Fold this protein.
Amino acid sequence: MSVDIREINEKVQKESAFIDMINIEMNKVIVGQRHLIDGLLIAMLSNGHVLLEGVPGLAKTLAVNTLAHIIDVPFNRIQFTPDLQPADLVGTMIYSSKNEEYIVKKGPIFANFILADEINRSPAKVQSALLEAMQERQVTIGLNTYKLPEPFMVLATQNPLEQEGTYPLAEAQVDRFMLKLLITYPKKEEESLIIRQNIAKTFPTASRIFKADDITQARNVVKEVYMDERVERYIIDIVFATRFPADYKLADLKNLISYGGSPRASIGLSIAAKAHAFIKRRGYVSPEDVRAICHDVMRHRIGLTYEAEAENISSEDIINKILNTVEVP
């Protein structure tokens, strides 16, 4: 089947124009954090979820809230605590003495954008309730199943500093997040601007300029972005290099990796690469799109051995070595 790249390119350039408008509105409120904003856009266009890791105060909540405001969809922030119950998240049945029947009280999960703050503060039962909603896009309350709104995106945060009294996410559950973004401190000039914004008489606000339907339409166009078979093979080679490093002249990684990326890693790399090409206003995926999002898609999907931890080798180091070794098409 022949593919008209020029036609796809024109369509993508037309449909992706709104990305510039979102960036303009986001930049009114968020100073710097370019990587965070791009990651949120890629996840939104890919129908994926994001795990955010960074110290408090780096505008994680503000960024998600602002994006939801721009698209004019409901946003809920849920603070995960050790005493949180699954019903506090998804909802429960409440008996109405007036009607003499049980009625459904829906929980805060019923919003388009969910910020699960410090997800590792709650026990596994609550984490699994959230992860089920992420995977199935629905929740069961009593005997009835309720669809979650579209678009639906979960952004969960983890604080890398305090690990006391936390319940780390199981590896199989972490795999459900399409991206894991590491949020870093702003630069000096950015921090100066942050101070000025926060001590000014009024804090800047973004405009509501889109609707949920616009995101659904953009997602359909992202799926049309062309991916050549050679780029597809490149993605597969990267993922297989995490499973069978010796096959890719990376035998020294064999004792450092306890497990490699699952098929979700291959799917995530493919969809995220298409979304990255889309936000760069291109109708085709290049190897550079794959390399640009590879760390965010793969960093939480590679298991490290005790040997790797003893040698202070991170998943970032392993991904860098794979990208430097696997042949680029």
Notes: The first strand starts at residue 50 and ends at 53.
